[in-house]
C-alpha cells in the first residue's frame, strides 16, 4: 500500500497525478504551466473539486515544493512519507534504456547525456527527477522511457540509409516517442475487441500537439513515425515533421537569421507545423475557429495536417499487410471528430467506415460501423497510469527482496 506520483516534467510545465497503489485509484491530478515566466499557473483536481491560482514560479524545484505543499494543504497527504514512489516520464532512452529503471546518480547523468536526442524534453526531465529525489528521499524514483516500447523495431525499420558506421559509432537511428501511450492504448484495444493482443495488427495514431503513428503487430512496435528525435514524422503543432534534409542547408545559406543548424532546428521544432503554415496558432481548436471564419492559411494548415496523417497511416497498413483496428488517441485524436472523420474518409479503400453518431458522441470505444472491415477506436491515453504501474512493479520487487533478506 502506498501513494505514487506520476510526473511529466517539461521545460515550462509539470503535469502530475497522485495514485493510491496498487488499487490504481486517482487521488488527485494537476498541472503547472508557464514555469519560469512572470505569471505561472497551477491547477489541481480532486474529489470533483477544481482549484487554480497564479503566481511566479521560478523553476522546477520551486514547482515541486509547491506541489508537495498543495498535497498537504488540501489533505491529500498528511506527511511526505506517504508517497512511496515517484515515476517520471522521460522521452529519450536511446540505446541505453530499453525498459524502465530505478534512478540513481549514474542513471540521472545518462539521462542528461541523452538530451541530444530530445532537447526539448530530456534537459527538463532530470531537473524534475532531482527535485523530487531531494524532497522525497524515501520515495522510490523510477524513470519510464517513451522510446522503450519501440525497442522491438528491427534494424530494417530503425536504421537510416546512411553509412552504417554512424549507427555503430554514434547510435544514430530511429528511436520514436510516445511509446508509453501507444503501449497503453494497444493493450486496451485488445480488451475492447475481446481478442488476444498477440493476434492483432493495429495502427495507433497519437495525435496531439505532438503526434506520432505506430504500427503494432502482436503487441510489439514494428515501426513508428518519429525518428532520432521527436521532430520527424507527421506534421505537428509547431514541428515540421519529415522534410528534405537539404532544406536545412538551403535555409542556412539563404536566410540571414537562420545562419546555423541550431537556428534552423529551432525553426523546425518551435515555429513550423500548424503554427508555421497558418501563421496564427498551433492549437487545433483555434485553427478550427479560424477555418470557420474563412482563413485560407488556416484551412491549408488543416488540409496538410490531415494529408500527412493519412499517408503515414496508409503506409503502416501496407507494412502490416492489413490491420484489425485503427486507434485514435491523445488530445486531438480523442476530441476532434472532424479530424477523425476526414482521415477515415481518405482511407475508405481499406474498408474503414465510421458511424457519424458514434464519432460525434466521442471519446471512448469503437466508433466504426458494423460493416467496417477495420475497427476504428477512440481510446483516451493514460500514460500516467502506465508510469504508476511501472513504479509499483519496482516497489513490490524491492519490498519482496528486502523482506526475503530480513527473513534470512
Structure, explained:
The protein has 408 residues and is α/β, with parallel strands linked by helices. It has 2 domains: 2-145, ATPase, nucleotide binding domain (Nucleotidyltransferase, domain 5), CATH 3.30.420; 179-383, Nucleotidyltransferase, domain 5, CATH 3.30.420. 40% of the residues lie in helices and 21% in strands. It contains 15 helices and 14 strands. The chain has an 8-stranded mixed sheet. A 6-stranded mixed sheet has the order 11-10-9-12-14-13, sandwiched between helices. Helix 1 (60-73) crosses helix 3, helix 10 packs across helix 11 (296-319) and helix 11 crosses helix 13. The longest helix has 25 residues, at 383-407. Residues 402-408 have low confidence and may be disordered.
Give the key terms.
single chain, 408 residues, alpha/beta, Nucleotidyltransferase, domain 5, 8-stranded mixed beta sheet, 15 helices
Brief digest:
The protein has 408 residues and is α/β, with parallel strands linked by helices.
Major β-sheet annotation: 8 strands, mixed
Rg to the nearest angstrom?
22 Å
Q: How many H/I helices?
A: 15
Regions with pLDDT < 50 over 5+ consecutive residues? 402-408
Q: Examine the coordinates and then state which fold CATH places here, giving the name of the CATH topology of the largest domain.
A: Nucleotidyltransferase, domain 5
How much of the sequence lies in strands comes to: 15-25%
Number of self-contained structural domains: 2
Quaternary status: single chain
CATH superfamily of the largest domain: ATPase, nucleotide binding domain
| Shape annotation | globular
Mean pLDDT: 90
| Architecture per CATH nomenclature, i.e. the level-2 architecture of the largest domain | 2-Layer Sandwich
Task: Give the tally of β-strands.
Answer: 14
Q: How helix-rich are the residues, as a percent range?
A: 40-55%
Query: What is the structural class?
Result: alpha/beta
Amino acid at each position: 500500500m502506498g501513494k505514487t506520483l506520476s510526473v511529466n516534467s517539461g521545460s515550462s510545465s509539470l503535469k502530475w497525478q497522485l495514485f493510491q497503489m496498487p488499487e490504481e485509484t486517482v487521488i488527485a491530478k494537476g498541472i503547472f504551466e508557464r514555469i519560469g515566466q512572470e505569471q505561472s499557473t497551477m491547477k489541481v483536481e480532486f474529489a470533483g473539486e477544481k482549484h487554480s491560482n497564479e503566481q511566479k514560479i521560478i523553476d522546477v524545484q520551486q514547482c515541486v515544493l509547491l506541489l508537495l505543499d498543495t498535497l498537504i494543504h488540501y489533505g491529500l497527504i498528511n506527511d511526505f512519507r506517504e508517497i512511496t514512489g515517484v515515476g517520471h516520464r522521460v522521452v529519450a532512452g536511446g540505446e541505453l534504456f530499453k525498459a524502465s529503471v530505478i534512478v540513481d546518480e549514474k542513471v540521472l547523468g545518462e539521462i542528461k547525456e541523452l538530451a541530444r536526442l530530445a532537447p526539448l524534453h530530456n534537459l527538463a526531465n532530470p531537473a524534475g527527477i532531482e527535485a523530487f529525489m531531494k524532497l522525497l528521499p524515501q520515495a522510490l524514483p523510477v524513470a519510464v522511457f517513451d522510446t522503450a516500447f519501440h525497442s522491438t523495431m528491427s534494424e530494417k525499420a530503425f536504421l537510416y540509409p546512411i553509412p552504417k558506421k554512424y549507427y555503430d559509432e554514434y547510435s544514430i537511428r530511429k528511436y520514436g516517442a510516445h511509446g508509453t501511450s501507444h503501449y497503453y492504448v494497444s493493450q486496451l484495444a485488445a480488451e475492447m475487441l475481446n481478442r488476444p493482443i498477440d493476434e492483432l495488427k493495429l495502427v495507433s495514431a497519437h495525435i496531439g500537439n505532438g503526434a506520432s503513428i505506430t504500427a503494432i503487430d502482436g503487441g510489439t512496435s514494428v515501426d513508428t513515425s518519429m525518428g532520432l528525435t521527436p521532430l520527424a514524422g507527421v506534421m505537428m503543432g509547431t514541428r515540421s515533421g519529415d522534410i528534405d534534409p537539404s532544406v536545412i542547408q538551403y535555409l542556412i545559406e539563404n536566410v540571414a537569421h537562420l545562419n546555423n543548424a541550431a537556428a534552423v532546428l529551432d525553426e523546425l521544432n518551435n515555429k513550423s507545423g500548424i503554427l508555421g503554415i497558418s501563421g496564427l496558432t498551433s492549437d487545433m481548436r483555434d485553427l478550427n475557429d479560424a477555418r470557420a471564419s474563412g482563413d485560407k492559411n488556416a484551412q491549408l494548415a488543416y488540409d496538410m495536417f490531415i494529408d500527412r496523417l493519412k499517408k503515414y497511416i496508409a503506409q503502416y497498413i501496407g507494412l502490416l499487410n492489413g490491420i484489425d483496428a485503427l486507434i485514435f488517441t491523445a488530445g486531438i485524436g480523442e476530441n476532434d471528430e472532424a479530424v477523425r472523420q476526414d482521415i477515415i474518409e481518405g482511407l475508405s479503400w481499406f474498408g474503414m467506415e465510421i458511424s457519424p453518431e458514434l464519432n460525434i458522441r466521442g471519446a471512448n470505444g469503437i466508433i466504426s460501423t458494423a460493416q467496417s472491415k477495420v475497427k476504428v477506436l477512440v481510446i483516451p491515453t493514460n500514460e500516467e497510469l502506465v508510469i504508476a504501474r511501472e513504479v509499483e512493479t519496482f516497489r513490490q520487487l524491492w519490498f519482496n527482496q528486502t523482506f526475503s533478506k530480513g527473513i534470512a
